[in-house]
Specification:
283 residues; mainly alpha; homotetramer; three-stranded antiparallel β-sheet; globular
Chain lengths: 283, 283, 283, 283
Amino acid sequence: MISAMSSQTETPRRAAHHADEDRWQTALTSIAPNSILIRGYAVDELMGRLSFADAVYLLLMGELPPPAIGTMLNAVLVSSLDHGVTPPSTLAARNVATSGAPLRDSVAAGILAFGRHHGGDIESCMRFLDRGLTIVRAGRSMQDAAHEIVDGCLQDGRTPPGFGHRFHTRDPRAARLFQMALELELEGEHVRMIRAVERVIDAEEAETGRHLPVNVDGAIAAICADLGFAYDLGNAIFLISRLPGLIAHAHEEAVRQQPMRQIDPKDHQYDGAASRRLPEKRK
Amino acid sequence: MISAMSSQTETPRRAAHHADEDRWQTALTSIAPNSILIRGYAVDELMGRLSFADAVYLLLMGELPPPAIGTMLNAVLVSSLDHGVTPPSTLAARNVATSGAPLRDSVAAGILAFGRHHGGDIESCMRFLDRGLTIVRAGRSMQDAAHEIVDGCLQDGRTPPGFGHRFHTRDPRAARLFQMALELELEGEHVRMIRAVERVIDAEEAETGRHLPVNVDGAIAAICADLGFAYDLGNAIFLISRLPGLIAHAHEEAVRQQPMRQIDPKDHQYDGAASRRLPEKRK
Amino acid sequence: MISAMSSQTETPRRAAHHADEDRWQTALTSIAPNSILIRGYAVDELMGRLSFADAVYLLLMGELPPPAIGTMLNAVLVSSLDHGVTPPSTLAARNVATSGAPLRDSVAAGILAFGRHHGGDIESCMRFLDRGLTIVRAGRSMQDAAHEIVDGCLQDGRTPPGFGHRFHTRDPRAARLFQMALELELEGEHVRMIRAVERVIDAEEAETGRHLPVNVDGAIAAICADLGFAYDLGNAIFLISRLPGLIAHAHEEAVRQQPMRQIDPKDHQYDGAASRRLPEKRK
Amino acid sequence: MISAMSSQTETPRRAAHHADEDRWQTALTSIAPNSILIRGYAVDELMGRLSFADAVYLLLMGELPPPAIGTMLNAVLVSSLDHGVTPPSTLAARNVATSGAPLRDSVAAGILAFGRHHGGDIESCMRFLDRGLTIVRAGRSMQDAAHEIVDGCLQDGRTPPGFGHRFHTRDPRAARLFQMALELELEGEHVRMIRAVERVIDAEEAETGRHLPVNVDGAIAAICADLGFAYDLGNAIFLISRLPGLIAHAHEEAVRQQPMRQIDPKDHQYDGAASRRLPEKRK
């Protein structure tokens, strides 16, 4: 994916540096005086022509995204923008902010709280779906494969990654992402596999006694895997998405609250804008 | 508890909770089962309808951006996406990655390297321009004000924030941002002030012997200030912009290099895509 | 303090490298195959002969500490080892731990919460005391100087750094540190200045209506300043002291609590060892 | 290890709080106005009576260490104090410092670079030795067990954790730690197992063609495991040990170098104290 593309233009440069074999190599961005080329494109030519999501895809994947993928990635990045004050990452960021530390320190602490139960779940789910697809490639049906990987988790007492939520019985972000993948004709084998897993888990709900809806991490995992992202880049997409949320909470803590307070995650009240709909022209 | 209250519905709830005054308050996102409202808008309604940059503006500023501001903010976020392997933030991220730590740890370390000389310069520049505008409001001309704040820096041996670059004598990102602010009719008093400062510094170049071009931090500072961002949110915009760069370098380090290597910032070679132009249809 | 000590042994090395002037220099530790010299001493010779606190002094200050300073520094490092679950740094570390992140991520987040109101106060207090001593050197009395710097804070609505505590009306750690500094004959001008400030604040309590006892940060600041530590190393001493506390809480969170819980700082209970005294032989 | 010790004194407290079952519990430190009890001991009573290393043991393990363990732990903490400018953690810290960020940000970034190849190796080695001891408990000899776990690594192309070093062919810190464990009569089964592994690896050197000396991480791992530390606390001991090194480098970078420089890890020169011996009275 991040391939080392050679090209004719490199030949003269190679000639000039005999010891090139010993140099370490990078394929992301080349810098020269007054010139910044990201994956070969001048950044000032990209500005105003690509959305930020398009540019993220270019940088991480090496090529410009087709329009449908750009639309999908914008939606993925919007999906996890913020989830209120209760996630541990937000509380870590606010606890740093209340000490009087600068905003970037709060944000860094919030990012560190994307452990394997929170954000890191995306990578786990991508691997989980790939285990299912390996079974399919060995000749079994999607449904058999889904059964096998779900039962593998449940027998170990683990919740299948990408399923279950502390607050939601139906995660509105997952539903919207799957709908968009369908409409944009971007559904691939990972989305089909997670839908198969979803049916297996729903069917077993009577037996397990647990309602485990597919969550936004699961939807992001399936879609990012279909788009060809590496495992750790799946988590990274969540990280890009949630960063503004961490920033907004760190800023609000610094601006609205007293320093050195004890932050009780159950004792807050929302006093922001009332529920409202997008104006017609933005739909 | 975390419901999105329209004003009428608050009365009964306040009655139920006598201690509401003691609760701490947040105006960002309200969470209820199967409902996530960001600044009052359902996140699943925003998905597919707002670009990520639009949604960032909504979360940080509280309202939907007019289209011109959305376009501007996308360009600002693209402008600082990556700057190759040499910034200290990128080297901090790569040094963490070479130890075998997970991607989010590399990224957090990179963010910590946005000190006052790197990224943090945006906030300094916003304050610097506001000092100039305070002088203007006291009755002096833009040019006089620019002279005064520039001389204040130079007399203390400091480079005016937002000016000078280690590599570029003309920062192509700054030029493009100012051009877009003009075309989108988003130029405000901070952009006018930084252009006045630019003229003063250029005029004094013969005297100071230093060429100090306006840089991308200066352009972001002026534009974010005109858009009404708080000081620390100016830095935060840079942070959102550069995060994908930190991710790409941490990922590339893990995938392409041996662990525990000594990373020499001068010894690398670009082996990525050759210089290329955007296809006509993306312009 | 970190001086560049030349020595005879360097002469041949300098001869071998013509470009030495261009190399960047470090005076801390020299590494050669099978040899690690910290400030010139073989680390394996230090092991078993210096306490960790002695070795920290050697590394940071460049010379072995006299025994009284070693004793004092051990006490300073013990003083701030832990302060239960309520400091924001501890809560930041626990919120990272509950996400399933590794221990070092929790600890890094905790360190980021040593902002200017928490830990960072030591540096502020060192500067505050030095402002007082500058006044003394200009010919005024200790008491006059203390009055002036205290009033400077109170008039701005700021609490004098190193004074006041959320929980304690008399900080037992500060009292013990001052007692030890006296007994070890390590009291210097910074300790005398903070005692003068203490008397001024006590005398003004009737007027200000606020009881502001000297706290452990103030005591560490005065003692570290008398020992000759640089401002930022004063904060660093606190950081070394509290690190085991952050580790213990991150470990306890991972071992004793469910992942992804909402951590309410007011809802905990201590279930550890009952109050006990040191055995006679350790006194 | 961090056990919930009940005691008579808790009974009245429990009686007072009916909802105690719902509270989350901590066994580390209890705070009351003007009282800080660490594992039941008043911190001001510990100050001046315990070395910092003793106090760390008390906090992490719950009880006072016998004197031999206190001596051993001081030596372990001194062993990894610093390793010059080349470790990735030190370079991460210096890259943050050169951006103008505060010392604690540099230190946090350095800690994040203790990935599984650097510092994190201690936990891997503890698990590796425990795999050997499990084989011994199943009735095999130490030597057989050592052969099996070494071959398990080598067959997978992995270096056995705790062995090999980038710079040293004989790690002087490991040798000194093993000597002290012997003299202090603290050698346990993990030290015996790692010595058995060492003999196996030495014997296979002719075959593998690689010289893999036991390193300081291996020695710390064996000793900490014999002392009863949990796996993640083994890494944590390294973290406490190296923290002053990170601090010293971040401080030196800020004080001696220009900001925003490109840090080449191969281009430095030591200009500190010449090689010297401890004075007789410190031996």
